[in-house]
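Researcher: Next entry in the queue.
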Amino acid sequence: MTRRWLAPDGVIMPDAAQLHVVGIDDRQYLAEQSKVWASKRLGPGDGFDYKAALNAVIKHPRVDSISRKAQLVTNTQQLLSLDLYDQSQDLAFKCPFTLTAQRSERISGLLTYF
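Model: Structure for this entry, 114 residues:
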């Protein structure tokens, strides 16, 4: 896949990537979303309860960043290591992993990063 766009003597920099996962506690985000969906209204007295939408918001993946290292609750686990130069096709993978809690906190999400 990568060679299709690479010049004959081209170089990929960096030529390797690792995918990692760590458990996080993001109570602030959950509290903000709870407040937003609990107060959502289309109009005065619309009669709809939007709190049910919160479940979908919480389960939906999001692209974000963490603001404090204190949000990390578990160890970091490497899921995948790739040699980008030799990667010749799109990748689908399954990777079992185990995370170990570093302190007694609720894990509200998984953060994956390269």
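Model: The mean pLDDT is 80.
Researcher: Noted, moving on.
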